[in-house]
Amino acid sequence: MMFDKLKQLTKDTGVYGISTIIGRFLTFILTPYYTHVFNRADFGIFTNFYAFIGIFSVVFIYGMDAAYLKFASKPVIGDKKDNFSTPYLFVFFVGIIISVIIFLFQSSVVSLLEISQSYSYLMKYVIGILFIDSICVIPFLTLRLEHRAKKFAAFKLINIIVNVLLNVFLISRLKMGVEAVFISNIIASLTSLILLMPTVVSNLKFKTNNLLLKRLLKFGLPYFPAGLAAMMIQSIDRPILTHLTDISTSGLYSANYKLGIFMMLFVNMFQYAWQPFFLQNAEDKNAKEMFGKVLTYFTIAASFILVVLSLFIDDLAKIHFANRTIIGASYLSGLNIVPVVLFGYMFLGIYTVFTVGIFIKEKSIYVPVITGIGAAINIGTNFALIPVMGIMGAAIATLAAYFVMAVIYFFVTQRFYKINYEYAKLAKIFISLFIVAVIYYLQLFSGTLTLTNKFLMLLLFIILLVVFNVGREEFIFLKKRFLNQGAKN
């Protein structure tokens, strides 16, 4: 029974991940493209602006998304239109106020981002993207609540396809510079808004329910600091790196950081499936044992992805296609940060596994505190290591933040929802990683690292995983899950 439920989790991870994989991959395609058409300074300019967009996307929505999901899923105050209109109108008008404030202080924002004032004109696009995207959040959530998953996924994919095609057209055909990135994004965001207008019109009435608004703000605002801290961990390193080095170095870092997308995709897919899985199975008599095994299986899968990509990322990045490498030659010197980025995302996934106790025991008060600690560690480590280690310091700062958050989450949640994780197996996984890492770097520094040796190291890691971690139960589960499935196909 337990392995049947774990099988369902693996299946749900795949189902939830389909639209995410397609969307993220289409967006990722732009990274290699940009590295061939933009120099590192231009790449740094738009990634610094997008760091600002990432952080302020949380400011524009200030937890109202979580509050809307909470109160609209089972309305207790007002009717369906009240529950849509009140958060939508409030987000709309607060968004206008925030947009005006940013516009008035745009020169200061550009300076804070360590970008030349000659690019301050791009702020009008930044403001437009933030505002339009914020007023699309509630309608998109409505599609989820109404179980219109196909329409939700289709609209998201249309947005991304429009964005990608416009980028290529404006840059390749019209020979536009970095401005093309922002024009493409704002048109794609407008496309989403137009597609969502029937949902808005059918649910909107021009009146707010003040009692509902108070409840929405009371529930949603505590999510704001946690969301802001989480986004800072993901984005703040770019402007800090620019401040301590230069915009070109920031561009080099950002391009190579994006190569960690494959681990990020895996973690995102897992996140979509994990929360409903543990909430639905929380009352199972074997729940804690099952959740313990989930951590083991996640760590095995993530460590395998980590090893494969770390061993072969440089070979993949240097593959020639149409007389060009996958990423521009001037960006290849930053590939050494990719394993660190992958490792950081792995700990983000482990941190996600530990959230089970927070949700089940309703201890969300710890979330902003732990995330805030992670953000503080990220910022402090960036300032400490970048002057010494350059872009590697920035990558280590992100890894440090996710690692510390995972550790704190573990100790906090174990106090009120103790799970006996498979510590011996987890230790053996990390020992296996350590052994392969030592061999890799010894060969790297001695100049004996070859493609054949990389495949041998991968084989060694697989053997270690099997010998150390896969017992009879796990072997039967994996055989049924993968070998039998392959036979069906």
Structure description:
The chain is an all-alpha fold. It has a domain at 63-220. 82% of the residues lie in helices and 1% in strands. The protein contains 21 helices and two strands. It has helices spanning 2-37, 40-61, 64-73, 80-104, 106-112, 123-145, 149-173, 179-203, 210-220, 223-235, 237-244, 247-257, 261-280, 287-317, 338-354, 356-360, 366-389, 391-416, 423-446, 451-469, 472-488; strands spanning 320-321, 324-325. Strands 1-2 form a two-stranded antiparallel sheet. Strand 1 and strand 2 (324-325) form a beta hairpin. Helix 12 crosses helix 18. The protein is globular and about 70 Å long. The model is unreliable at 12-16 and 481-489 (pLDDT under 50).
Index terms:
single chain, 489 residues, two-stranded antiparallel sheet, globular, disordered C terminus
The coarse silhouette is: globular
Helix content: over 70%
Range of strand content: under 5%
Biggest sheet, open or closed, and with what strands and sense?
2 strands, antiparallel
Would you tell me the structural class of the helices and strands?
mainly alpha
Order of helices and strands: HHHHHHHHHHHHHHEEHHHHHHH
Low-confidence stretches: 12-16, 481-489
Mean pLDDT: 84
* Count of discrete alpha- or pi-helical segments spanning 4 or more residues: 21
**What does the radius of gyration come to?**
23 Å
CA(first)-CA(last) distance:
24 Å
Report the strand count.
Answer: 2
Question: Which strand order do you get reading across the main beta sheet?
Answer: 1-2
